[in-house]
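4.2 Preliminary Data

To establish feasibility before requesting continued support, the project team ran the inverse folding procedure on a target of 196 residues. The structure was first converted into the token representation described in Section 3, and no sequence information of any kind was made available to the design step. The complete token record follows.
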């Protein structure tokens, strides 16, 4: 299997490039004001997340990723270039003739592991039949025991159930965030009224 050079493709214009530019300038683009939208703008497709998942598991080489994912080489090259350009992955040569590279998560890529954990927990609970079946389980390196995601109150250190959390506005909220929170609060108020 021939490993692509891996250099990012140059923007040559055309319909797809025009659509990408239009999307970037869209009034609905929140990638600079919402951390979730910013994350989705980098990792919002199936392949980017799965490539990063495999790199976080410890796979490093192009051919390993192709075998694990069953991904077309041109798509894998594109996703590795994107992950590298976004600062989530580094690329280093391990062989010069023919050229071969290894890919490893950066600090930012490693930090995405908590998102992978959360996705694994959700998928294990809501998409695996029977519930809980999974081919890979995350465990503590120190104890070997399974790990689970928890929300911890920043001030008290107490565990907080996901169902007992609410999004609130911060000093950086824009008009759209203010609208979202107000609309959500109106729904919560209506729900409380119906329950009483």
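Position-by-position output of the design step:
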């Amino acid at each position: 299997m021939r490993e692509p050079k891996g250099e990012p493709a140059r923007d040559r214009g055309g319909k797809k490039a025009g659509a990408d530019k239009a999307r970037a300038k869209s009034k609905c683009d929140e990638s600079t004001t919402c951390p979730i939208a910013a994350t989705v703008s980098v990792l919002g497709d199936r392949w980017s997340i799965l490539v990063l998942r495999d790199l976080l598991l410890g796979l490093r080489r192009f051919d390993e990723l192709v075998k694990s994912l069953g991904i077309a080489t041109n798509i894998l090259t594109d996703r590795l270039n994107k992950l590298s350009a976004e600062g989530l992955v580094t690329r280093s040569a391990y062989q010069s003739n023919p050229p071969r590279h290894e890919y490893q998560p950066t600090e930012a890529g490693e930090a995405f592991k908590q998102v992978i954990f959360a996705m694994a927990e959700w998928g294990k609970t809501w998409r695996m039949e029977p519930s809980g079946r999974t081919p890979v389980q995350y465990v503590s390196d120190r104890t070997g025991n399974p790990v689970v995601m928890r929300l911890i109150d920043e001030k008290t250190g107490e565990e907080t159930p996901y169902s007992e959390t609410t999004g609130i506005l911060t000093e950086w909220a824009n008009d759209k965030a203010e609208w979202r929170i107000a609309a959500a609060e109106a729904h919560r108020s209506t729900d409380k009224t119906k329950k009483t």
